[in-house]
Amino acid sequence: MRALFAATSFRRIFTRLIRPTHQIRTMASAAKDITAPPVEKQVIVHEGKRYVTVKEGLAHILVPEPSEEDKENLRPDQAVRQVFYNPIQQYNRDLTVLAIKAYGKEAVQQKQASHSKLEKIIEKKRKREAQKKEQQPNKAQKGADGDKATTSAETVQREAKDAAEQETDVPVDKGDEQATNGEAKKGKQPPFTVLDALSASGLRALRYAHEIPFLTSVTANDLLATAVDSIKLNVKHNRLQDKVNVCHDDALAHMYTLIAKELRAKDPKGKPTLSEKYDVVDLDPYGTAAPFLDAAVQSVRDDGGLLCVTCTDSGVWASNGYPEKCYSLYGGVPVKAWFSHEVGIRLVLYSIQTAAAKYGLTIEPLLSLSIDFYIRVFVRVKKSPAAVKFQGGKNMMVYNCDSGCGAWSTQMLMRNKPSPNKKGSGVFYKHTFAQGPLVDKGCEHCGSTMHMAGPMYGGRIHSPDFIKCVLSELDEAPTDVYGTTLRIRGMLQTALEEILLTPDEQEAEKAKEEAIKAGKKPDPAFKEAELAAVDPYPFYFHPATISGILKCSCPPEAPLKGALRGLGYRVTRSHCKPGSIKTDAPWSIIWHVFREWIRQKAPVKEDNIKPGTPGYRLLRLGEKKQQQEEQTEDAEARKEQQSEQAEGEKMPEVVFDEQLGRDDKTVKLVRYQANPRENWGPLNRAVGKVPSHHRKD
Questions:
Q1: Between the CA of residue 316 and those of 175, 309, 329, 340, what are the distances in Å?
Q2: Where is the composition biased (Basic and acidic residues) (predicted)?
Q3: What is d(CA 88, CA 231) in angstroms, rounded to the nearest whole number?
């Protein structure tokens, strides 16, 4: 079936983009050569082959025109394709361009500030040396071999670099050195480089070169020879030879070659020099990105470089069919649950984190999204052995009642415990063992068997500040260039709203903002608190699924949200799935609200609920009937029922306030995308003898 879908999509793409062959032949004069300015839908003839120009963003790519034989004889089981344009991934590319622009503006500003600071240090050093020469003119001629003892400009510059490194704790790279040689004064911007490791047609690299103004170079790499030829042709057609470097190599070989070069480049003092690591590394494979993560975290700049990762193997990280495959790729086990896509995000982040930690690198997730059939994450990578110590306390196991009510509980692998320092003026963190287990083998709510998942990342998966920066870029983005702006805005706003801060985090954020407004530096304790922060409210639930367990009608979204908010809890939604509810309310409150919904609004037929089922236990129907079970099981059941009954008596009154549960709808957002057409989804892998971890889209 997948081949049939691919063949159908293949035909539709070219039916829309290419005129009938007989019309093209009668208009032979309309065909242009490769040197013609790119225009959408124009026909290009190059070396005897005909192409049609497809435009996305500001880039144009050449798509081979299918022959008449291909059009007539292509069977569903012979959906053989070359490198081609996949319009389904335009959302991914639009989002990535905006994210890199939002990240890059801050990165370039930091580089410019670093360059200016370095220039000042060099100037001060030169002045001191000049003063020494004036005060001791005779000493300048001393020396057994007759050489001058005056410090050369290169020596001054090198010493200034050492001083800058000691002061800023940031290594001076090639861009810094160029700036110190006067290029910054001439107005030349610092270098900003991107690696498109699995470039396929080169469309991503072309869009980066066209649409990111401060980008100085992008490397488009691919292993398949036909793909490299396609990239070169597209680069020439877009006239971007000065910005796009085409590389024909295995992605791993390319990145490890760069790493080896970095390791060998040492100055006389043994320090690394002239870093050529990329500011941004983009991994967009067909399937999993796991084989590339070790090389990628080392190839991106370690002073805050951006790593963009796509994983399209949702059948592995978002299902329960291949737990052994998921563990071998990502180091964790998935769940059988409604919230499996967020678990998939956290498994991918855990895999990136563990790959980086071995080299003293820490990651900060900036934006992590479950989109259609794939995951897209943006993480910042920094060299910080001290921050790596916090990572054990930011990873967790999940206990899931997958065969019963669907409730979950989390267990951190370690604890990052704050303790007062000796001076009493602050805190320091101890990294200790975590207590466990926190749950019994049976679910506390319905008694069903609990299963384990993980380990996975347990920290925040988004940065609110970064999302706001991307939204700011989106405000300035022209809709004729970025065709998916409505969906991007809706998903980013949903991701921003799903961040539920704890009361302590809210106070810390407020104090941090006040310090910044007052022109003061934030308390250093804020930074460590951010490193130790975990997400206490991960995952989401689906009201329709819970209603199915309880055999009741599903409550509308507004009354359900209003009931939870009326009890003092926060309620939002998850970007992963429509109809989802994300809240800081515990499961005991959620079940209490649903029981009240049944009692007040939607009574159920108790005879339709079989004894021993999760719904039977959750509704406490056993209290009304005599159970015919063994004595020990009966005693345990009565004990559980008495405990639950006592707990239920303390439960507050539930009011299904529809007005309170309504969200602000003054701005309409496209939060969830419907399938744009029939047989929509990932297409087949392109032809070519390449390793299974390489994609050709």
A1: 41, 16, 9, 10
A2: 131-148, 635-652
A3: 20
User: For residue 206, what are its two tokens?
Assistant: 């072309």
Looking at the DSSP bridge assignments, the partners of residue 305 are 381
Residue 675 backbone phi and psi in degrees, to 5: -60, 125
- DSSP 8-state symbol, 291: G
The alpha carbon of residue 455 and the mean position of all alpha carbons in its chain are separated, in whole angstroms, by 18
Would you call 256 helix, strand, or coil by DSSP? helix
pTM for this entry: 0.84
Indicate the SS3 state at residue 125: helix
**What phi, psi does 644 have (nearest 5°)?**
-70, -35
* 62-82 per-position pLDDT tens digit: 988 876 666 665 544 333 344
Token digits for 407? Answer: 């409730």
Residue pair 253/230 in contact (Cβ under 8 Å)? The answer is no
Cβ atoms 591, 618 nearer than 8 A: yes
Question: Interior CA angle at 25 toward 21 and 30, to 5°?
Answer: 110
Residue 642, CA distances (Å) to 208, 396, 620, 639, 647 in order? 64, 32, 10, 5, 8
Q: Are 693 and 285 in contact (CB under 8 A)?
A: yes
DSSP of 29-79, one letter per residue? GG-B-TTSPP-TT-EEEETTEEEEEEEETTEEEEEEPPPHHHHHH--GGG-
Please calculate the CA angle 98-100-103 and round it to the nearest 5 degrees: 110
Token pair of 501 as six digits: 């801060």
Spatial contact of 454 and 354, defined as CB atoms under 8 Å apart? no
Which tokens is 331 given?
Answer: 């180091």
Q: What is the token pair recorded at 45?
A: 């003839």
Q: In what order do the strands lie in the sheet with 49-56?
A: 43-46, 49-56, 59-64
